[in-house]
Amino acid sequence: MSVIKIFGSDPPCARCRATEKIVKEVVKELNLNVDVKHISVFSEEADKYGITTTPAVVINDKIVFSGRVPTKEEIKDIILRELKS
Amino acid sequence: MIIMNLIDIIIAGINALIDYVALHVITCLIPAFLIAGAINTFLSKDVVIRYLGYTRSKIISFPLAAISSIGLAVCSCTIIPIASGLYKRGSSIGPAFIFLWTAPALNILAITYTGSILGLNFAIMRIIAALSTSFLVGLIMVYVFRKEELARLSKTMELKDYKIIKSKKFIGLIFLLILLLLLPNYLGIGRPYSEKLLIFSIILIPTIIYTKLSFNSEEIKIWLRETLWFVRIIFPLLLIGVFIIGIIGAILPEEWIKIALGRNDLPSVLLADIIGALSYFSTMTEAPFVKMLLGLGMGKAPALALLLTGPGLSLPNMMAITRIFGWKKSLTYIISIIIISTFISLLLGNLL
Description:
The complex is a heterodimer. Chain A contains 3 helices and 4 strands, in the order βαβαββα. By secondary structure, chain A is an alpha+beta fold.
């Protein structure tokens, strides 16, 4: 099962929560078997990806979106692109 | 002490809302929020941060950290994650902590609101004080932790070819928005509010035309969404904060303020500095709070100190910094900030 990781501040701020909500909505609409996780940007895992701005969306071990809350269309395009293979 | 009845207190709160918010919404807050939204949409923060990590020379990295904080942390919730990211991605300890201090101080919303409520002099002094404090504290941090830094920064960062400004049209947009913000207030000094609204409307027309011509509807949608995000997160807290400030202003005895914070000397400034350092102020609420205290007799130097440490530090903020950077760096930072900002406020505040 694939994982979409959302990195945000801990405790999560409003934008981080909104990003997680939009990603979960899109995953549900596309009927994908994907796990969506919120991870603290202060964790070692965030260091691994070199996260600089939050919220940051990580798919397939790379940062695909960061800095603001994405629109549904933007996230849909990104998810389809990354998880098609 | 005069005992006020509940109605008087509520009226005081409502008057504060009218003075500090209603009169500033159209000509100050709307342009400021639009600017914040544009910065968040059209600037690539990631590139700026990686560039900061790449630069070793203090002459470049220190001012760059300060200036870029205007564009990097328009949302106060990202300040600590970005500072942590800066530090861990290879930036020297100086720029990371400079950013931590200047981001809340140079926040575009806070500066414009300060200028609007307290006047241009206060806004300018606030900027100068924040910058000078941050550079001095940056130097202190670099010096105190120099051995550790030498070991930590031995690996260099890779800088790929990225664009900082996602669209050149952004510059034109920001220019027009700044005109929208400044001209009604500048040309309209001393003139009735209706004239300010007129100037605002006149400048709004070319702004809308430019936007329609330069950006596609998707970009405009994202920009307006970002702007509304800021409004949704910040504005309700501002209203609540201003209402409470109005009530405090009515209840707080003038004598207390005059005695504790009334003079522009060291004890008053230090007290204001520490109060600001410990208290949490949500974005933009420090300006009406300071205005209220000035009205009760606070001196201008303590006022400047409060404008600096109010948004810059708070108890929860100190705890987060300690969690991320450890107590040694956190303590060095906090003590340096309090001492230096007190002296700089003492100096500059007496020039106000």
